[in-house]
Amino acid sequence: MSNEETALVRQPSSVIVPRTLDEVVKLSETLAKSSLLPEALRGKVPEVMMQIMAGSELGLAPMASLRSFHIISGKPVMSADAMVAVVLASGKCEYFRRVEESDDRVTYATKRKGEPERKCTWTMEMAKTAALHQKDNWRLFKRAMLAGRSKSELARDVYPDVLAGVFTADEVGERDHGPSTSSVTRDDVIDAEFTDSPTPPPFNPADYPEIADLDAAGTIEACREIAGRFAKRGLKPGHPAYEAVNARYKAQVAEIKKRGAAAPAETAPEASTSETAP
After folding, report:
1. HSE-CB of 22 using CA atoms within 13 angstroms
2. Please, what sign has the CA dihedral across residues 10, 14, 17, 20?
3. Least packed by Cβ within 10 Å: which of 83, 211, 260, 275?
4. Under a CB-based contact definition with an 8 Å cutoff, are residues 141 and 127 in contact?
5. pLDDT digits (tens, 9 = 90+) for 116-164
């Protein structure tokens, strides 16, 4: 792993590190006045404090914490690179490296001391299933987005004790604070740089047969039946499974209409005039 990533973690130096709560407050008050902070943090001392303290628990210096975390829905969301940096600095990791990369597939591998090597692969096919592929950042920076997903998933899976309490943007229903541009989405936060009442479970397409059922549906009526079945799960917009099923529903309805299939009004159960699944 590069020196840039490991340098995120605090090294013995003259870096300014607050030692008491009063020092954290004073430092946060000073930094909150800076025009160099992301616009969403300027003048917001509690948010600055939260990011500094969240990073401090993982060994990050104050400025590294502000670079590595974004507060979303009141929870600290950590960048993928910062997760890897903390893992490497923990002393529990022998290596964490990229072993395969292309615009369609990225794989990372890591070895925890005393355990066999583990790998995690993210593909554009997985991104399509999760309805991510049409977002601008995924269309323009496929490899970087796939790398971010692969790194963060592998780091949290193999080193849960090191990254305990760290959330990903997928676990957040909506964006509160992030980078300086207001158009950035929760997917940009976790992937481009490199939470919970209750926290949604990790999204595994295999747990939602409705996705495959929609792919095989031959009529709009069948699509509506599948959407109604999925709606009983009670998932809300923003949940990865909801977004994936919703995207597949609309795509399949459009394909059926394109083929000239005759069916009743293309609206999902309890939806209005828009073709939205759950």
Report:
1. 0
2. positive
3. 260
4. no
5. 999 999 999 998 888 888 787 888 888 998 998 999 899 989 998 888 7
Residues 252, 216 contacting (CB under 8 angstroms): no
Q: Which of 14, 79, 71, 17 minimizes the C-alpha distance to 45?
A: 71
Q: What is the DSSP letter of 211?
A: H
**Ramachandran angles phi, psi of 175, nearest 5°:** -90, 135
**Which helix (DSSP H) or strand (DSSP E) does residue 252 occupy?**
helix 240-258
- Burial class of 270 by CB neighbour count within 10 A (0 to 12, 13 to 18, 19+): exposed
For residue range 4-30, what is the model confidence (pLDDT) as tens digits? 455 455 444 556 777 788 888 888 888
Pairing of the two strands 93-101 and 75-78: unpaired
Those residues whose C-beta lies under 8 Å from the C-beta of residue 207, and which sit 6 or more positions away, are 241
Angle separating helix axes 142-158 and 80-89, nearest 10 degrees? 40
Residue 180 has φ and ψ, to the nearest 5°, of: -70, -25
d(CA 163, CA 204): 21
Instruction: Give 151: exposed, middle or buried? Use CB within 10 Å, 0-12, 13-18, 19+.
Output: buried
Q: Establish whether the linkage from the previous residue to 46 is cis, with ω within 30° of 0.
A: no
Chain position carrying tokens 């590069």: 2
**What pLDDT digit, counting tens, does each position of 90-119 carry?**
899 999 999 999 989 999 999 999 999 999
Distance CA 156, CA 79 (A): 12
| Residue with token string 């893992």 | 87
Instruction: Give the DSSP letter of residue 201.
Output: P
H-helix or E-strand spanning residue 145: helix 142-158
The residue with greater pLDDT, 18 or 220, is: 220
